[in-house]
Amino acid sequence: MRVVGDRVGVSAPALYHYFDSKDALVRRVVEMAFRRFGEYLSRAADEHPCGSLERVWALGRAYIRFAMENQASFRVLFSLQRDVPRAVEDLPEGGGYALLRQAIVDAIEAGRMRRASPDLLAMYLWCVAHGLVTISLACRFEHGEDCAAPELPESPEELFHAFAPIVNSGLRAGEEATHD
Amino acid sequence: MRVVGDRVGVSAPALYHYFDSKDALVRRVVEMAFRRFGEYLSRAADEHPCGSLERVWALGRAYIRFAMENQASFRVLFSLQRDVPRAVEDLPEGGGYALLRQAIVDAIEAGRMRRASPDLLAMYLWCVAHGLVTISLACRFEHGEDCAAPELPESPEELFHAFAPIVNSGLRAGEEATHD
DNA sequence: TCGGGATCTTAACGCTGTAAAGGTCATCAA
DNA sequence: TTGATGACCTTTACAGCGTTAAGATCCCGA
User: pLDDT tens, position by position, for chain B (180 residues)?
Assistant: First the structure.
């Protein structure tokens, strides 16, 4: 708080005139970050027609781009350190979930995606993108000859792109249940 | 540190006889958690024959089960708060990556999985499982009538199981590149 | 019997977030 | 014009944190 106060030119206790606590201040910052996050997503979606698979992919790419370009924000947004998990509905912009879900609904209706539950598909895509990002932020990979995964692309964006064949097979395949 | 000291019956500064800093103590705890994590994975793998798709799935399930049964550990293991990302190779048990990769190599050789880069496939599966877990830990979903995603299973384990058709299509499909 | 290391203590330091008390100034009613 | 009010800021202080410093106790080998 003292540092924040310095940055804006007041003493630390003065900040308590505007925020109840440090937590409240952080929450405010997070809220602003979520709004920027939502803009990333909607701008990405707007560039592709409703019902297209490309629109869904663009959302994934935007998700990853936001996380990489706003790492500090992203860490706070989806921090695992919070006491109680955040309710998705309470997020500004619905956390982008509604946007993704609708893009999927449209793609299904357009026949570009398998007729599965939109929520299931949305959750699946969210998991792929979110996992990719959180792993990238939490772990470091040595790229080179003698390393764990030499063939992998270095950047999360490229890695996401490399997933495309695998993921698309899942999204477009028929409806047969192939487990067990 | 004072609380930890109380728990083990000494004063806080006494802990500094055994650990250089609080961070060093936490690192030690994390290391122990990773070892337990490795046990979860190898026990799961041992229950299924090499080369089977089931073995790969079992690793995913074990990943999720560990995260859910050891939430505090998992939060620390893959915390996004650390200054510098953790090198995967430095992890005890290689963070389980080597185990997953080998299971995939075997499955490919046995013809149960598409002939793609094992690292790519491993990374993909890791992302799905990790994303699923981190989202579950960070966000809360209201399940019921008027909610964001009413059709989704409640537990991460069930959700992972529900992903099976989608994921399997990607893992088993032919080698054609279907992007763009 | 003595010295030294292992193990512990208490006291204290500098850092946090935050409460309490009070100062200054613009605004507005009497 | 005056006095009150509220917005906005200050300094001071407190309890908590991780950590250091200094010293006490005890065990063990020479």
Answer: 999 999 999 999 999 999 999 999 999 998 898 889 999 999 999 999 999 999 999 999 999 999 999 888 888 887 766 666 677 766 666 668 899 999 999 999 999 999 999 999 999 999 999 999 999 988 877 765 555 555 788 899 999 999 999 999 888 865 444 444
**Nucleotides on chain D within 7 angstroms of protein Cβ:** 7-12, 17-22
Residue with token string 């979606």: A45
Q: What is the DSSP letter of A140?
A: E
Tokens describing residue B49: 């024959």
Residue B89, number of CB atoms within 10 A of its CB: 17
Whole-number Å distance, CA A62 to C1' C29?
A: 57
Global pTM value: 0.88
Record: contact A140-B94, CB cut-off 8 A: no
Residue A111 vs residues A116, A173, B164, B168: alpha-carbon distances, Å: 11, 11, 21, 20
Nucleotide nearest to A20 (CA to C1'): C18
